[in-house]
Write a structure and sequence with these properties.
single chain, about 425 residues, alpha/beta, about 15% strand
């Protein structure tokens, strides 16, 4: 009799319709399904009862079921943030505890979701393997953003939870080699805090990957057609994908765009953002751009490649701080997949190494006009690097050859160790 398929519960403290879930979580889960592992997904939906009726929930559940993903959802609560999060954690723990006997692996995305899995496992006789998908340095992100005071009660509580999860989890995922070295390297302070023993648990470095199939088939004719549609046939086009504000250095990007326009009056800027389209457009106007010199638009993941192919380079300015050593900007992988060189600032994850070793962009080490103009000159000196950019995306950020296989390798390692323990 064939052995029953192994089952995992992926716990995600975001809503299903969030762009991050659509472009990062679901594609990875589809790859795990292909490996023969049964996948269940738990998400937390904002205003669940107000925005989701039973009919669209059932329709979405059927659609995901057809892809081999069994979807469950709970409500997400925001008011009185710390209390609301604690309430959601309790609901998540109770849900997971009720169903835990079905699963061989609990896979938590980031600290809050992993904490739910760890607590539920502690309250059960059944102890599935636990994956701590760390992604970023969550406590430090909040202090670097000024949301939590350093060494305040929320930060200290989050760090205690992190230390416990590092000790309790069976396998880990980080986004960058820098993060792996900081958390799990030979001189890691984090490891000395949780164990005096040699660290032997599996760790996978899985950067934010993209499905390159979305970008295949787009050629010079598609580029020219899109540029004609946008009325930018002979213009130098810079593109930015993502939000304005927060970690993203809006003022610095606007200054960079202005420097590019002063250097070349034909410069055109495309901003592709999911939220705040009019606010972003107003920022461009305040920076001195007329409406004929820029486009701000919200596009779907399916439309994104067509807009990127019309550009000449992609911009990625992110606040350089401690927590961003663990960051792998998805936009960079998308730029490269579209054949675009990257203009980025130093100090973000593995981006410095990516650009320097592959020759697929330009790094700036300070935010001033001289540095911007120098970067634009270096960009021109690169010449046509579209093929090199696409090859780099294929080698380092392909969902099907990098992201999916590394997740599957982690699962197989954990499940193999479980079988050895059972024998």
């Amino acid at each position: 009799m064939p052995e029953a398929a192994k089952r995992t519960l992926y716990i995600c403290y975001f809503g299903l319709r969030e762009p991050l879930v659509q472009t990062q979580v679901l594609p990875y889960l589809r790859e795990i399904v292909k490996s023969g592992i049964d996948v269940s997904l738990l998400t937390f939906e904002p205003e669940l009862k107000k925005k989701w009726s039973s009919e669209p929930i059932a329709a979405m559940r059927r659609a995901l079921s057809a892809e081999g993903i069994d979807w469950h959802c709970l409500g997400y609560h925001k008011r009185l943030s710390a209390i609301a999060t604690a309430f959601d954690i309790l609901n998540g723990v109770l849900f997971i505890r009720r169903h835990i006997d079905r699963f061989d692996v609990l896979h938590g995305r980031v600290h809050v979701a992993t904490l739910m899995g760890a607590l539920a496992r502690r309250l059960s006789r059944h102890t599935p393997k636990l994956i701590f998908d760390i992604r970023g340095f969550f406590p430090e992100e909040y202090t670097d953003a000024g949301i939590w005071p350093p060494n305040g009660i929320l930060y200290s509580t989050a760090k205690r939870a992190e230390r416990w999860l590092l000790k309790d989890a069976d396998g880990f995922v980080v986004l960058t080699e820098k993060a792996r070295e900081i958390l799990f390297g030979a001189t890691s302070q984090h490891l000395s805090e949780i164990s005096d023993l040699k660290f032997e648990k599996p760790v996978e470095v899985i950067p934010c990957c993209v499905d390159l199939a979305r970008f295949t088939g787009l050629d010079t004719e598609d580029r020219l057609a899109m540029r004609r549609e946008l009325g930018i046939d002979d213009r130098k086009v810079l593109v930015y994908v993502g939000s304005f504000g927060g970690w993203y250095l809006t003022d610095e990007m606007l200054d960079f765009f202005a420097a590019a326009r002063d250097r070349d009056a034909k410069t055109f800027v495309i901003v592709l953002t999911q939220r705040g389209v009019e606010a972003a457009a107003e920022k461009m106007r305040q920076a001195g751009f007329s409406d004929s010199d820029f486009l701000v638009r919200s596009v779907t993941p399916g439309e994104l490649p067509h807009y990127l192919t019309a550009a000449d380079a992609g911009v990625s300015f992110i606040k350089p701080c401690y927590s961003k050593q663990a960051s792998s900007p998805t936009k960079n992988a998308e730029y490269l997949a579209a054949g675009l060189p990257i203009i980025a600032n130093v100090g973000i994850g593995d981006v410095d190494k990516l650009i320097n070793e592959n020759g697929v962009g330009v790094l700036i080490d300070r935010f001033d006009r001289e540095a911007y103009l120098d970067a634009l000159e270096h960009l021109d000196a690169l010449g046509d690097v579209a093929a090199k950019c696409r090859e780099t995306a294929q080698r380092q950020f392909d969902l099907k050859t990098i992201g999916g296989p590394r997740y599957v390798r982690l699962y197989r390692t954990l499940l193999a160790s479980e079988q050895r323990q059972d024998q």
